[in-house]
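Narrative summary of target 7.
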Amino acid sequence: MENNRPLIAGIGELLWDVFPSRKKAGGAPINFVYHATQMGAEGCAVSAVGDDASGAEIVRELEKNRIRSCIEKVAHPTGRVLVELNEGLPSYTIIEGVAWDYLPLTQQAIDRVGKADAVCFGTLAQRSPVSRNTIKTLLEYAPGDALLFFDINLRGHYYSKELVEESLQKANVFKLNDEELVTLRAMFGLEGSDDEVCRMMMKKYNLRYLVLTAGSVASTVYSPSETSVIPTPKVTVADTVGAGDSFSGAFVYSILTGKSLREAHQKAVDIAAFVCTRQGAWPPYDPSLIPSL
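Modeled conformation, tokenized:
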């Protein structure tokens, strides 16, 4: 930890979520870093942008939110995702051939990941060979006791059984939602109740934690010795963009700062509920509206 603050890194997509009437900074691993930073962590975003106005603008957003960055400029446009909302639930059109598909391996990124207390990664940024190889290599530099947080984050056709299996083997924390669990059941031929499948994956991949979210119903967090189930609070939803990432960032920060599994889970639930009441993935935090902050 740096200055008694956990160092939390996110490797992968940094992009603009483009809504019909606005745009917001986003990208799942960087959303994770944003929320951990809001909680009090030292955050580091590892990604790439284009040498364009959109790239300069999103880097300024990182700086404004006190997020350190290992952001390289590459010869491809800054990432964009077109977002449509239906009753607050997003659907995505993810532009291909963008900067974060060409994430270079740099000494700066190696140095930051090499000191990290937690590193978040997913499947989407591994859709291209360049970024996939960079992410794989960077994970090898993470400290042996770091939380390696694999948020599966399935999008479109940008994943495969091989990629999921390889990522699970590198991770010690795994997060997925109930819809993604259905996909994994079919992909790996998994049978049994959701609880049985989650416990099997905990054991098979030697995980320290497994997080299963089920939208507006509940979320469950597993460790080898404990299980926590918390119903999802009822809130007025503005949109759910970034809510899962906020859950992840809050949970990891809380674990790293000594909270029990149940306490960390409760903080994650409270933060995610708050984020659902705001637009975009990076809302300013309001302690008066977050019970456990």
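The chain has nine helices and 13 strands.
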